[in-house]
Amino acid sequence: MNTDLPHVAEKMGEALRAEVARQLLLDLAHYRQPVPDEQLSIDWSDACEEGHCTHYLAGDLEDMSSVAVGRADGQPVAQGWVDFVHGGAEHPLHVFWLFLDVREGETWRSVKEDVGIPQHIWHGLPESSRDACSVEGKYDARWKNDPKVVAWRRDRAG
C-alpha cells in the first residue's frame, strides 16, 4: 500500500486524518463483514479533492474520491468516495462512504451507490447537525435535497 500522502490528505493533519480513518473503518463494517484480526488501513495515495470542505481538529477535510482500504499485506478490500456531515465548529464530525465498492475474491461489488447520507449515519446525527443540513446557506446545505433531510424539514415544519 502506498504511504505517500497527496495534498488532500496532508492538509488534514495527523489528528484529523486519524479520526477520519477511524470513522471510515467503522463505516466500512456496515457494508462488509469484518474478518477477525484483520488489520486495515486507509490508502490516501490516489485521493482526489471534490469540493465539500470543513475545518476540524486543526486540519482541513475535503470530500474525496479514490480513497482505498487495504489489508496489512497490501491487498485492497474497498474503495470509494468519502464525504461527511459536520455543520461547523460547534458540531461533531460524521465521516462516511458516499460511494463504496468492496472486493470479494477477485471481483469488486458496489455496496453503496446512492448520493445520500447513509441511514445509520443519519440516525446518529444530533438535531443541530440535522438542522445544519436542512437550511439553504448553512454549513452543510449540500445535503438539503437528501430525502432524509427533506423529510426532517417537512416533519419539523408540520
What would your notes on this structure say?
- The chain is α+β, with helices and mostly antiparallel strands.
- Helix 4 packs across helix 5.
- It is 28% helix and 34% strand.
- It is built from five helices and six strands; from the N terminus they run ααββββββααα.
- It has one domain.
- It is globular.
- The mean pLDDT is 88.
List keywords for this structure.
5 helices; 158 residues; alpha+beta; six-stranded antiparallel β-sheet
General form: globular
Distance between the termini: 51 Å
Number of domain units: 1
The major sheet is characterized as: 6 strands, antiparallel
In total, how many beta strands? 6
The helix fraction, in percent, is 25-40%
Indicate the proportion of strand residues: 25-35%
* Category by helix and strand content: alpha+beta
Radius of gyration: 16 Å
Number of helices: 5
Average pLDDT reading: 88
Q: Can you tell me the residue ranges where pLDDT is under 50 for at least 5 consecutive residues? A: none
Elements, N to C (H/E) = HHEEEEEEHHH
Briefly characterize the structure:
By secondary structure, the chain is an alpha+beta fold. 28% of the residues lie in helices and 34% in strands. It has one domain.
Topology:
Elements: H1 7-10, H2 13-28, E1 40-43, E2 48-56, E3 59-71, E4 76-85, E5 94-104, E6 107-112, H3 119-124, H4 127-134, H5 147-157
Antiparallel strand pairs: 1-3, 2-3, 3-4, 4-5, 5-6
Helix pairs in contact: 4-5
